Amino acid sequence: MINQNPDNLVSNPIERASIEGYKFSWFDWFCLWYPPGWLILFNRHWQHYHSDPDGWNWLEYILFLIPGGFYLALLIRWLRLGCRLPRQENTEFDPTYQQAFRQEIIAPIVEYYFRGELLQIENLPSTEPMIVAMNHAGMCFPWDFVSLAYLLNKQRGWIIKTLAGVSLFDHAWMIWWLPPGWSKVLGGVRAELDDFTAVVQERRVILYAPEGLRGPRKGWRKRYKLEKFDLSFIQLSQRFKIPILPVVCIGNEGLHPWTINLQKLQHLFNLPFLPISPLIPIFILFPSMGVWAMRSRLRYFIQPLKPAVSGEQQSENKRSFVFQQAQRLREKMQSQINSLLNKNIENKA
After folding, report:
1. How far apart, in whole angstroms, are the C-alpha atoms of residue 60 and residue 288?
2. Are residues 64 and 126 in the same domain?
3. Per the structure, how many domains does the chain have?
4. Which region holds residue 213: left if phi is over 0, alpha if psi is between -120 and 50, else beta?
5. 20 to 30 A from 63, CA-CA: which of 126, 296, 300, 343?
6. 8 A C-beta contact, residue 161 and residue 207
7. Do the strands 160-164 and 244-250 form a parallel or antiparallel pair, or are they unpaired?
8. Are 142 and 278 contained in the same domain?
9. Residues 213 and 338 in one domain
10. pLDDT of 247-261, one tens digit each?
11. What is the CATH classification number for the domain harbouring 145?
12. Is 82 left (phi over 0), alpha (psi -120 to 50) or beta?
């Protein structure tokens, strides 16, 4: 059922993809519709294309599906590895594996589970580069950005990179949950200025959350209110003459509903946020659900492209000018969110 024979694993995803893609079995479909199984899907797909001797095995996967079984699986794996962490390897972005993962794993999740769709498609440019700036919510695994990346790739065929919080790369849970270098191989870029600058210079399509972690941290009560925007994306847009494409997502607030963030506990456990909701007892029983989210309808409303501002248009106080640009964009996106919510209320009335 779960084939992990090392002889069948090829370290080069390009070579493996040319031979045989990943095919969904009945077990994979079961994992898709049984929330604790999503982590199994991610790891099984990786192991289909990569040699992963330190990864999870079939016995541990079965334990994921049992209440509290993840803790036993973690202990078994730790003992199997000689009481050490999984080996961390030097990995680089692999657009071929990114495409395979999107088509074979992300596609059924986005299309059948999150029901993602692009709207106002006439505003979507046909050429790159650009910084795609989107409101961020949900207080969970960043499915709003993963789904948007998939939809943009499907619509335009773009190779896309996503700026992501450093916890997706370094946190202890991620080291155990997912294969080493998983986020980086799939196009994740650490949300640090040097890394952001480097990827902007590559002149690709970059997904970016102007709210940063303030977005998911705001919780359910402020789910439709945009938090303060960072300034770095405006500065880099101006510096490298790259336009900004604002996108408003409606539905990402429902990925993990009814949440509040407890900041003291968040800092105590060194987490980017610590959501407390009625779902938490289930997460405690099934920690593998950390990459899962509630079923939602993710709708992405593409706004008109915002050209990069030239140096001649800037005022003498450059930082003040950048702040005004970020504030103006935030106000426009907030206005669009409010308008879309009002239309939804009218349609339901």
Report:
1. 11
2. no
3. 2
4. alpha
5. 296
6. yes
7. unpaired
8. yes
9. yes
10. 999 999 999 999 988
11. 3.40.1130
12. left
Q: End-to-end alpha-carbon separation of the chain, Å? A: 49
What's the pTM value of the predicted model, to 2 decimals? Answer: 0.89
SS3 7: helix
Residue 65: domain span: 6-80
Span 168-183, mean pLDDT?
A: 85
Does 87 reside within a domain?
A: no
137-165 pLDDT, tens digit per residue, is 888 899 999 999 999 999 999 999 999 88
**156/20 same-domain check:** no
* Residue finishing a domain among 54, 80, 106: 80
Instruction: Classify residue 41: in a domain, yes or no.
Output: yes
Could you tell me if residue 89 is inside a domain?
A: no
Domain boundary among 18, 52, 80: 80
Indicate if 29 and 101 belong to the same structural domain. Answer: no
Helix, strand, coil percentages, rounded to 5, for the chain:
50, 10, 40
Strand residues in the chain grouped as ranges (E):
117-119, 130-134, 160-164, 188-190, 205-208, 244-250, 260-261, 275-276, 299-302
Question: 224 and 217 in contact (C-beta within 8 Å)?
Answer: no
CA 8 to the chain's CA centroid = 29
Please tell me whether residues 41 and 100 are part of one structural domain: no
